[in-house]
Design brief:
It contains 14 helices and 10 strands. The chain has 329 residues and is α/β, with parallel strands linked by helices. An 8-stranded parallel beta barrel has the order 3-4-5-6-7-8-9-10, surrounded by 6 helices. Strands 1-2 form a two-stranded antiparallel ribbon. Helix 5 packs across helix 6.
Length: 329
């Protein structure tokens, strides 16, 4: 792996100075994070072998979050942090879907809010490239935009059927292992909404710390059946995404959809992006009142049967051929 352009100490010094001069309307005050009793915050679960304690509801920085205007997104992040959401996920590609040049991308938004809570939050982001020579450059770009000197979780973005796991192992995965040893990233993983089989291959053949997988009650993609057992066997931390996208309003409640994800064995958190404050508050309320002991009465099969007709591109925008995760679709 090529030598890094700067040490962690040098990077921290630069980003700390940069963060000190930032002034944005709606930034969260340090005291507000501590304003709620810990017992009134969202429950946490261990994220597999990482040992991280993650809130069962995580904050997505993708297309839905990107739609929020200035002033609204700052308030969203403030509410999330106050109520105990501690995992924030983004990707370099999310910053490409801006309505105007004046808009901040997802990374930059996170970089304005999260540094002051760095010891309270878990930052997850992704590499887009499959070229090992570009891994270091992408990681350094993320560090700069997020104004941090390390990334908690670095995911290989959008594993799909065209990916060759042996090529990934010898290329970008090897580079990430080197960056993990250097301390720039703590945990390595991948995301996938396109291929449960390739996800299983990744889990069976590589030492994966975290997997972000598409799982919802339509059972589209069969991730829970094909990939999740391998994650459980390897004690890989699992985050569920696409939990509600395009299903809300199809005769099923938000509470049931979240409960479906939280009720999956091995799933630590549901990753959800929000456009508008009301959906965020509703999801937070569902997370606050969620109890593991209520899962025994949850009728998973009935929900799967009722929503099976929506399992496909005809109903799920993210299942459409050519859909790019993080787009406006």
């Amino acid at each position: 792996m090529k030598q890094l352009k700067q040490t962690r100490r040098e990077f921290l010094s630069k980003t700390a100075k940069g963060a000190a001069v930032i002034s944005v309307a709606g930034l969260v005050s340090s005291s507000s994070f501590l304003s709620k009793n810990e017992s009134n915050k969202i429950p946490k679960r261990k994220l597999g072998k990482t040992g991280l304690e993650v809130s069962i509801l995580s904050f997505g920085g993708g297309s839905q979050f990107a739609k929020n205007k200035d002033g609204a997104w700052q308030e969203q992040m403030e509410v999330a942090i106050q109520d105990g959401i501690n995992l924030f996920d983004t990707a370099p590609s999310y910053s490409s879907f801006k309505r105007s040049e004046k808009d901040l991308g997802s990374d930059e938004r996170f970089g304005l809010i999260l540094p002051q809570y760095r010891n309270k939050v878990i930052i997850s982001t992704k590499i887009e490239t499959r070229d090992p020579d570009k891994v270091k450059e992408e990681v350094e770009g993320s560090l700069s935009r997020l104004k941090t000197d390390y990334i908690d979780i670095m995911l290989i973005h959008a594993i799909n059927d065209s990916d060759d796991i042996s090529v990934i192992e010898k290329g970008i995965y090897k580079e990430l292992v080197g960056l993990k040893k250097a301390g720039l990233i703590k945990y390595i993983g991948f995301s996938s909404m396109d291929s449960a089989q390739r996800s299983k291959d990744m889990l069976d053949n590589l030492d994966i710390d975290v997997a972000l997988l598409a799982m919802n009650a339509t059972k589209y993609g069969d991730f829970a059946k094909v990939a999740l057992p391998s994650a459980i066997k390897q004690n890989t931390g699992v985050l569920a995404m696409k939990v509600m996208r395009n299903i809300v309003g199809k005769g099923v409640s938000v509470e049931d959809l979240l409960g479906y994800a939280w009720g999956q064995e091995g799933v630590s958190s549901a990753l959800v992006g929000h456009f508008g404050m009301e959906p965020l508050k509703e999801n937070i309320q569902n997370a606050l009142k969620f109890k593991d002991d209520g899962l025994a009465s949850f009728n998973r099969e009935e929900q799967e049967s009722r929503l099976a007709e929506y399992a496909g591109p005809h109903a799920l925008c993210w299942a459409c051929p050519g859909y790019v995760d993080g787009s406006w679709g």
